[in-house]
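Quick log. Single chain, no ligands specified.
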Amino acid sequence: MKWGIIMIIKNGTILSPGTGEELHSGLRIADGIITEIGSLSAKEGEKVVDAAGCIVAPGLVDVHVHFRDPGQTWKEDLHTGAMAAAAGGFTTVVCMANTKPTVDSVEVLTDLVNRAGAEPIHVRFCAAVSRGLRGQELTDFEALAQAGACGLTDDGIPLLDEKLTEKAMQRAKALRLPLSFHEEHPAFIQKSGTHRTAPAIAEDIMVARDCMLSLHTGAPINIQHISSANSVALVRTAKALGAPVHAEATPHHFTLTEEAVAKYGTYAKMNPPLRTEKDRQAIIEGLKDGTIDIIATDHAPHSTEEKHKEDFFACPSGIIGLETALALGITKLVRPGHLTMMQLMEKMSANPAKLYSFDHGSIAPGCAADLVIFDPEDTFIAENYQSKSENTPFTGMELYGKIKHTICGGKIVWGDSVYGKN
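-> predicted structure:
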């Protein structure tokens, strides 16, 4: 995105996880590109953003969101999803393919890609691995890649056919497209949404299989929303063996346990479910030692009416997460000393960008001016979301890390002179 805007950001602490640099400096932006870093003075006509006390980091990248478009736009659509992302400091998101209709054809994908071009951030799309998410026949990977798919996933539904999964890995590897896997085997699930009725073995058995298939094929894969201590150990082992396996953790899985279900009800119902404190601690250890490369939200909006059904198990699973993810990372990982701020930025910008070969995650001359500016010491109450939905247990919590500005393509899309409400 090029906007013809010239801007200086001064007095901030620049964190560039892609290059590993921390700088106390200013930066100049022109036509959507970072042009200079150093001690800078504003020229006539340049907009000045004072980032005193703030961190200036690459715009966050979320590789796992659901914008419900097409088919369920009463929950979310491309624009409200993009605005929720901008409010959370994200400048790039990757939408999953389980829409209605499924993103398993060039026609559906092309429509999304064309409409996403009007949004204030970069909205990218995964295509489905199998036609209709039925796990029986692969989609046309080549045509979908040519039409703009950045990856492939049947997220929400596991691929149960081992030979089909192997074939998918081989074809995706040839196209240099990552595959992302939802790992829950239905044979071990009585009912979705709780640790008791959807135990960890349902995840573990699928993670073990796909880690070994990745080792066998050499195909890069991403284990989505990892929730089990055993699964973390399996990914750690697979990486040690040389498998190109990546794993993502959600803020809710490193923050909450199964006890949250009793407190928050359906607002703590998700797939895979919240698990034990042992599992939560294993996820944090996986984040600390690099076993888990990525923090992703699995932003899953649902209407209030859907989430307020009397029958817990009749309610859809999932919570929104774009507008609280960075703050939860700061509050629950950085402030307790589990991660440094640079490590958090690696897992929320550089590493997810690397998985999808996006040119994001660094701050240097010539890089795109996709940035987030936030105050790690400033607190806010989670509420008043940009998303159409409000299904999250984090509402009302005081969190550290208030976002001051989100900048995409050199234009402020959240903060001062924004689209939408603030």
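The chain has a mean pLDDT of 96.
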